[in-house]
């Protein structure tokens, strides 16, 4: 550091200042140097740091003591001479200072140089006087306080006499406050030494705090001025809430004034929150009655966004929690029931995803109470709408498709509106399961038929990926049903037809669905289904061996045949039917029976004609050979017309011995369908016992291979009822087995406990009355008995 030109050594200490950094000299000379400007101070400090780094790289010396943040300069052999001011020094200097104060407060130029004033204040604050009875700093502070006190009181008449409207009044107050801040800052700069010496050690306010306190006491604690200010601010905010444009900067400045004067929390915030409460309470009551739900929600969101903007621009952040709570409470919490009851179902029905998402977001703001009510409304909607889909028997043919669409729609609401909230996901599953089981057995049956429709070859327009997605969706519906045994029964019956008639769209798709069911329900559920696939594979091996057996031998009628050998326990139960086959078929049947029984002893073959199908070759016109895909019954009827030109219904029945129901369906498919190989007299849509049939020799078709509708493969009401009855009977057996299993383990058990354990073990829906009936049946068959001491207690009979 370079040496100073002063004769006496001096030290410059950096002192705090609210607006600038000044180096203020403390010297024993009569004329202290004026403050060093900020730029010079910065230059000196930088040079000192640089010299320190150059000469003392390790940061230590006899002149400098290094620390983490500061460096202290120690000058040895400093000579300080004491100077005593004359007793009347304050009386001579104060008039000059008072004139300077008046100039600052009035915005005029001071007659005395600022540097001279600063030196005088420095002497008064740092130098002792010959008169020890008075303290110059104390006198200086008291006189300064009086001047400021008198000046600030002049603001009050101006503001009390201000009769302009709200905006002009607030602008006047803002102007006075801004001017006061500027003057206060200048005064603090001039009397900075007083602030750093006397005020620092005495129990008095700083000059800045003194100015603020006087303004608060005389101006803002005046009831009239305060009320005009607060009411004016509230009026401007109310205007902005009505959509009018206001001077936000003015409002921001005055609210900042209240904060600086520590009046915001006491004087402004309570009336502001009260007016806000009143506004939104009335607005909520009115709008919920007049606006549509989606419009009301948009209004609520807009109000919340507006209040957030006010918090950003002029309202203090300390008010945020209370302000937002008031809006949420009055526009949302108080109207939860009305919002949900008035429009939630409509919004979901109309797929208004944005509005439902807005409900969720708004309700989420107010906590768990809103979310719980929304979940309840969501559950009620699902149960109500879903039950309407299930109960209406007239729409059974569309039920599954509508359920798939409904589930997809709900999943989209769950994802887009409720953000995959776990509780809403569980609500969806529980509600869906609830309404799916409102109608016993039917949904399970229709889901099984829907799977059959997708897996049949008629669904080839769908790719493998699309088919897989559809099966996954159907499996989701399957999870919701309780009567999974009903699904199994119908699925097994339809699977049998697909496998035996070759109607399956894809073996891979069939096995994929079987794997899905196995993963969902376990091995026991799919064991019989897997057995059916195994039988089809074994049948291929058997036919390969049969073809080798027939190689070189005469085949009756040169007929190619394929026989599927089915294990009775795996496949659905089919009624035994009889029919008269052509001699060639009878002979072929005998050959295969002998071949099979020679390979497998102790077995019995039972032929199921109702599942047979054939490929006939023949011509009806101009010797054009056609191939007809028909059932065995259709083939037996058509072959009769090789020998007869005209046959009655009774003639056909006598020659074929086909049962009435099957024969009527067969003749209906040949004579009344789209492809008519027979002519019927009289012409009608039904087949009667007195009808007569002839071959349609004028038949023509552009295809070589023609498929005739196989009516007998379509499910009949009787077959449907039979399948359902078998399921019911199976359930009886399962209930009996469960009761016996429980009693065998427990030996003795009360009726209530037995009922409870039976319901816990069985997976399908059962009634209490049915379980009681099965218990009575077991008592009659002596699997168990009532206790001699208590009729409500059962004992197992070994």
TrEMBL record:
Listed GO CC annotations: Cul4A-RING E3 ubiquitin ligase complex; nucleus
Domain Cullin family profile: 442-671
MF term (GO), any: ubiquitin protein ligase binding
One GO BP: DNA repair
PROSITE patterns per the UniProt record, alphabetical: CULLIN_1, CULLIN_2
Keywords per UniProt: DNA damage, DNA repair, Isopeptide bond, Phosphoprotein, Ubl conjugation, Ubl conjugation pathway
Stored Pfam families: Cullin, Cullin_AB, Cullin_Nedd8
Biased amino acid composition, Basic and acidic residues: 43-54
InterPro entries: Cullin, Cullin-like_AB, Cullin_CS, Cullin_homology, Cullin_homology_sf, Cullin_N, Cullin_neddylation_domain, Cullin_repeat-like_dom_sf
Pathway connected to this protein: Protein modification; protein ubiquitination
Family matches, as SUPFAM superfamilies: Cullin homology domain (SSF75632), Cullin repeat-like (SSF74788), Winged helix' DNA-binding domain (SSF46785)
Annotated region (Disordered), positions in chain: 1-62
Family as reported in the entry's similarity comment: Belongs to the cullin family.
Protein name as annotated: Cullin-4
Highest classification ranks of the organism: Eukaryota, Metazoa, Spiralia, Gnathifera, Rotifera
């Amino acid at each position: 550091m370079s040496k100073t030109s002063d004769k006496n050594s001096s030290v410059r200490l950096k002192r705090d200042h609210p607006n600038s950094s000044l180096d203020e000299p403390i010297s024993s000379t009569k004329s202290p140097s004026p403050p060093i400007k900020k730029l010079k101070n910065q230059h000196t400090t930088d040079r000192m740091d640089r010299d320190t780094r150059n000469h003392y790289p390790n940061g230590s010396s006899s002149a400098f003591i290094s620390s983490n943040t500061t460096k202290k300069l120690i000058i040895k052999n400093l000579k300080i001479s004491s100077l005593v001011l004359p007793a009347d020094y304050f009386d001579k200097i104060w008039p000059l200072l008072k004139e300077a104060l008046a100039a600052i407060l009035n915005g005029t130029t001071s007659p005395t140089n600022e540097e001279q004033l600063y030196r005088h204040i420095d002497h008064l604050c740092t130098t002792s006087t010959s008169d020890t009875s008075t303290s110059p700093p104390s006198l200086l502070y008291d006189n300064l306080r009086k001047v400021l006190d008198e000046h600030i009181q002049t603001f009050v008449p101006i503001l009390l006499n201000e009769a302009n409207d709200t905006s002009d009044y607030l602008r006047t107050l803002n102007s006075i406050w801004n001017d006061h801040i500027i003057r206060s800052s200048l005064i603090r700069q001039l009397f900075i030494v007083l602030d750093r010496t006397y005020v620092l050690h005495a129990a008095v306010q700083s000059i800045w705090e003194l100015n603020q306190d006087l303004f608060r006491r005389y101006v803002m604690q005046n009831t009239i001025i305060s009320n005009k200010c607060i009411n004016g601010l509230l009026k401007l905010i109310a205007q902005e809430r009505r959509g009018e444009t206001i001077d936000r900067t003015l409002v921001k400045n005055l609210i900042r004034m209240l904060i600086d004067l520590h009046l915001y929390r006491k004087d402004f915030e309570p009336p502001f929150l009260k007016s806000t409460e009143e506004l939104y309470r009335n607005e909520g009551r009115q709008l919920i009655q007049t606006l549509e739900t989606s419009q009301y929600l948009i209004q609520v969101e807009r109000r919340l966004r507006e209040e957030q903007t006010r918090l950003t621009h002029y309202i203090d952040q300390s008010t945020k929690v209370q302000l937002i709570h008031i809006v949420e409470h009055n526009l949302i919490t108080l109207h939860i029931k009305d919002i949900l009851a008035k429009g939630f179902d409509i919004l979901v029905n109309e797929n208004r995803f944005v509005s439902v998402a807005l409900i969720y977001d708004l309700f989420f703001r107010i906590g768990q109470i809103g979310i719980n009510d929304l979940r309840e409304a969501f559950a009620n909607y699902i149960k109500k709408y879903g039950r309407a889909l299930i109960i209406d028997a007239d729409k059974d043919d569309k039920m599954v498709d509508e359920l798939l669409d409904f589930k997809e729609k709900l999943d989209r609401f769950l994802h887009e509106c409720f953000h995959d909230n776990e509780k809403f996901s569980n609500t969806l599953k529980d509600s869906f399961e609830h309404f799916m089981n409102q109608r016993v057995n039917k949904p399970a049956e229709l889901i099984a038929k829907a799977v059959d429709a997708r897996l049949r070859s008629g669904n080839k327009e769908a790719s493998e990926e699309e088919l897989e997605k559809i099966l996954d969706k159907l499996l989701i519906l399957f999870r919701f049903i309780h009567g999974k045994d009903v699904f199994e029964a119908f699925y097994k019956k339809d699977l049998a037809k697909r496998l035996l008639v070759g109607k399956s769209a894809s073996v891979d798709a069939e096995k994929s669905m079987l794997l899905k069911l196995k993963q969902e329900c376990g091995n026991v559920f799919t064991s019989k289904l897997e057995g059916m696939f195994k039988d089809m594979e074994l049948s291929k091996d058997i036919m390969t061996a049969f073809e080798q057996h027939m190689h070189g031998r005469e085949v009756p009628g040169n007929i190619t045949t394929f026989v599927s050998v089915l294990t009775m326990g795996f496949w659905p139960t089919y009624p035994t039917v009889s029919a008269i086959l052509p001699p060639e078929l009878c002979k072929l049947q005998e050959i295969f029976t002998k071949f099979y029984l020679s390979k497998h002893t102790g077995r019995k073959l039972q032929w199921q004609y109702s599942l047979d199908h054939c490929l006939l070759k023949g011509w009806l016109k101009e010797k054009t050979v056609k191939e007809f895909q028909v059932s065995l019954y259709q083939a037996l009827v058509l072959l009769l017309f090789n020998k007869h030109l005209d046959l009655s219904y009774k003639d056909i029945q006598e020659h074929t011995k086909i049962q009435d129901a099957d024969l009527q369906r067969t003749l209906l498919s040949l004579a009344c369908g789209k492809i008519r190989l027979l002519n019927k007299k009289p012409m009608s849509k039904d087949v009667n016992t007195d009808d007569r049939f002839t071959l349609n020799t004028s038949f023509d078709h552009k295809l070589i291979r023609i498929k005739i509708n196989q009516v007998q493969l379509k499910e009949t009401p009787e077959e449907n009822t039979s399948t359902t009855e078998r399921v019911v009977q199976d359930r009886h057996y399962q209930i009996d087995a469960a009761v016996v299993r429980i009693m065998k383990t427990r030996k003795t058990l009360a009726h209530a406990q037995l009922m409870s354990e039976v319901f816990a073990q069985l997976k399908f829906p059962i009634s209490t009355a049915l379980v009681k009936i099965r218990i009575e049946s077991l008592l009659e068959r002596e699997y168990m008995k009532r206790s001699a001491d208590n009729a409500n207690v059962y004992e197992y009979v070994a």
